[in-house]
């Protein structure tokens, strides 16, 4: 019986997903998977019995120790685990890795491949650590049926969406992007900067090539630089895209037609990343996640066929629906990327 | 007797400078003027008897009420004023205006022109409010002998210096600049953002045209966008300059030869705006002012004849030596801009 297809009794054969690392990305992917009709969370893992582990149990997820040797810590903390990752990994159709940077690659080599289970690793890993790099709009087909895929970072995902909108109406000759990156996620009280701007002095930054790992035809065309600034809410991108021609109206229309990216107006009070997050809080979004990419409509301008625009990226959440689509592609549950996007969006309650 | 020339007794005939508005810019210009051999501060004005007014008196500056009707406030606060601006303006060879945005233009029309005194207004005013826009490297000759000149903003001054270095070795075809602006000056505890990135949704921003008001030959070639971020120390610029060709070594050499701009190495620990300011504090600079523009050497890169580089701008102080040079130009005290720059730098103790 094929995953995602209906059984004789009308039930859908669901994909069994294990979340290895129930942290910033992992907990969000778990919730996004749990609300899909064609997949289920068979368990989540944690390395330690912290508040997130406790809340995973309260939500009804089966909890497993990510590191078998540390299983006793959970018992000592009074948290009921269903075993260690070794007890559950064979039951999974696919593992979504939510481990910190570099650990994902280790997990892929030492755990997922050895257990012959498909896996998604996150954007902190390198492009050549996996078979391919995933974005729902650009590389769904390429990742179809694959065993080990890297889901690109929040910034790369955001750029892939806006470049998809632009590419739908004109040809991209060269794109320059300056990324103004948030310092840390909101829950991180250890690191800074508190009052400084930190340049990424490797210019161009790695973000351009990372976009190119998804969009092969843009090879050598995306040049990026980045700075880190003292804010926690969102990243921001200033895009300058040389094209063969487009109008502002074309771009606004193209964004309207592209999934998971939308225009906002500073004139309506959405004049900063803080205002965007306030909107998301008012929308009642879980954890105030803004999975879609907002583009400031006033910032869109075309001069000499070069498109200028500014967008924001909610670093914690824009990749979450992409993880769900990636599962469908890798498990061959849906051939059409747009159909998968629509299923994911509907289940998650996304704008578009 | 001509200002700046030696009298028979060997003394230099000094230019009499009035500082109207002893605030962020005014107090720094006062100190920079006071240490030059060929000019003197005949007085400074304040609108209210605050700590800066008190410290002006302690430094030995003659204090005048900027608004005659408020003179009594100074007496009531126990601060000895030498009169109001009306009592001193006729004695000045030139007034340096340090008033807030838009007030400078009003002062020029209602005060300086009526009293037939030369005046410098600051970069918050618009280009067409004055006869021309000043930068020591680019428009000294144009402003020579003029009566009303605008000294461009800190960001524009910073860009004029780096573009001068680049222009000295290659031809600029198009420059794109993204400005990451500090939120407020360090003494401002009223405004934010505290945790947000604010886009300037007018893209391109006004900074490009402002550079072009100084460098006429770059008309239409400088495109800028800007965001405001939660930091107080310095602005930062990410430059992307299309040229007819240059190497990294060319650029480093050109920066070394250009006054008031220098390269720093992140690898030496100067890896953020905070580290740059720490360096300036360690240098013993008054108010930790870093009047020179630091460019991160690691960030300098050339791809397809396009120069990439990142620089920081100490918003409170980079324009200060330019004000001194502007005085010399407007009062025809020195014909050679490089000689004026050298005099100013030496007196202020600048690096170069």
From TrEMBL, chains A, B:
NAD(+) binds at residues 24-25, 124, 182, 315. One of its GO terms (biological process) is lysine biosynthetic process via diaminopimelate. It is an enzyme of class 1 (oxidoreductase). It comes from the Archaea. Pfam families: DapB_N, Gp_dh_C. CDD domains: GAPDH_II_C, GAPDH_II_N. It catalyses: D-glyceraldehyde 3-phosphate + phosphate + NAD(+) = (2R)-3-phospho-glyceroyl phosphate + NADH + H(+); D-glyceraldehyde 3-phosphate + phosphate + NADP(+) = (2R)-3-phospho-glyceroyl phosphate + NADPH + H(+). D-glyceraldehyde 3-phosphate binds at residues 153-155, 207-208. The active site is at 154 (nucleophile). GO terms for cellular component: cytoplasm. Keywords: Cytoplasm, Glycolysis, NAD, NADP, Oxidoreductase. It is found in: Cytoplasm. InterPro entries: DapB_N, GlycerAld/Erythrose_P_DH, GlycerAld_3-P_DH_cat, GlycerAld_3-P_DH_NAD(P)-bd, Glyceraldehyde-3-P_DH_2_arc, NAD(P)-bd_dom_sf. Homotetramer. NCBIfam families: GAPDH-II_archae, PRK04207.1. This is Glyceraldehyde-3-phosphate dehydrogenase. It comes from Methanococcus voltae (strain ATCC BAA-1334 / A3). The lineage of its organism: Archaea, Methanobacteriati, Methanobacteriota, Methanomada group, Methanococci. The gene is gap.
């Amino acid at each position: 019986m094929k995953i995602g297809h209906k059984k004789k009794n009308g039930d859908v054969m669901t994909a069994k997903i294990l979340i290895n690392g129930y942290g910033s990305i992992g907990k969000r992917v778990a919730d996004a998977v749990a609300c899909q009709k064609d997949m289920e969370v068979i368990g989540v893992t944690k390395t330690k019995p912290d508040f997130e582990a406790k809340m995973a149990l309260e939500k009804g997820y089966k909890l497993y120790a990510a590191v078998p040797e540390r299983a006793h810590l959970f018992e000592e903390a009074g948290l009921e685990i269903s075993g260690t990752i070794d007890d559950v990994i064979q039951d999974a159709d696919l593992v979504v890795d939510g481990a910190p940077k570099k650990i994902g690659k280790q997990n892929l080599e030492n755990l997922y491949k050895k257990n012959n289970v498909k896996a998604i690793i996150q954007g902190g890993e390198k492009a050549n650590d996996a078979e391919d790099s995933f974005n729902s709009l650009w590389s769904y087909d390429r990742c179809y049926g694959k065993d080990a895929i890297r889901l690109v970072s929040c910034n790369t995902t955001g750029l892939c969406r806006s470049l998809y909108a632009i590419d739908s109406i004109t040809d991209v000759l060269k794109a320059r992007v300056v990324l103004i990156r948030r310092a840390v996620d909101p829950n991180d009280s250890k690191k800074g900067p508190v009052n400084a701007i930190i340049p990424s002095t490797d210019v161009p930054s790695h973000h351009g090539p990372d976009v190119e790992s998804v969009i092969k035809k843009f090879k050598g065309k995306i040049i990026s630089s980045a700075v880190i600034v003292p804010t926690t809410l969102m990243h921001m991108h200033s895009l300058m895209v040389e094209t063969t021609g487009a109008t502002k109206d074309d771009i606004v229309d193209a964004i309207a037609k592209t999934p998971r990216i939308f225009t906002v107006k500073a004139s309506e009070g959405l004049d900063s990343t803080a205002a965007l997050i306030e909107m998301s809080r008012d929308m009642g979004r879980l954890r105030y996640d803004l999975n879609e990419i907002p583009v400031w409509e006033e910032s869109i301008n075309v001069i000499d066929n070069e498109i200028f625009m500014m967008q924001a990226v909610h670093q914690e959440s824009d990749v979450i629906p992409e993880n769900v689509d990636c599962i469908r592609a890798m498990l061959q549950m849906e051939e059409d990327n747009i159909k998968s996007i629509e299923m994911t969006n509907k289940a998650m309650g996304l704008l578009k």
